[in-house]
Amino acid sequence: MSEAATRRLLWLAALCLAPLPFAGLAPGVAPPLRLLLLGAMTGAVALGDPDRMSAIFTAIFLGQGLAWALVIYGVARLLARSLRSPRLRAVVALGVLLLLLGASLFPIYRTPFSSTGVHASVAGLLD
């Protein structure tokens, strides 16, 4: 696996599945993609909302989601660069993906913004 493909796979897997902490409206643990989706939804509300609270919520969600996306990208880049063998890169990238996929099937995420409850699996986050 090439260095670029390894970096992309690690970044996308973590962006979509890694349980990372967030704060602001209420503390929790969710993938950065969840924060970006909530930011997009509150951003749509903010466009028609005369009150500025929706814009504040949008900034909180998007700010944290983008910050985590950048951190994850940096870590994925460093890891992909440190692995010299294409075979080793493939094993590590697929191992991380499978680990995150397996873990995400259990209620490892904690978010007050889920319709299935405070603790949810990745499927519960997408409700």
Short note summarizing the structure:
The chain has 127 residues and is mainly α. Helices cover 67% and strands 8% of the residues.
Mean pLDDT comes to: 90
Helix content: 55-70%
Radius of gyration equals 16 Å
| Order of strands across the main sheet | 1-2
Q: What is the first-to-last residue Cα distance?
A: 34 Å
Overall geometry comes to: globular
Descriptive report:
The protein has helices at residues 3-17, 32-48, 53-82, 86-104, 122-125; strands at 20-22, 28-30, 109-110, 119-120. The protein has 127 residues and is mainly α. It has one domain (3-125). A hairpin with a 5-residue loop joins β1 and β2. α1 runs antiparallel to α3, α1 (3-17) runs parallel beside α4 and α2 (32-48) packs antiparallel against α3 (53-82). The radius of gyration is 16 Å and the shape is globular. The relative contact order is 0.20.
Reconstruct the topology from this structure.
Layout: H1 3-17, E1 20-22, E2 28-30, H2 32-48, H3 53-82, H4 86-104, E3 109-110, E4 119-120, H5 122-125
Antiparallel strand pairs: 1-2, 3-4
List the defining traits of the structure above.
two-stranded antiparallel ribbon; mainly alpha; single chain; 127 residues
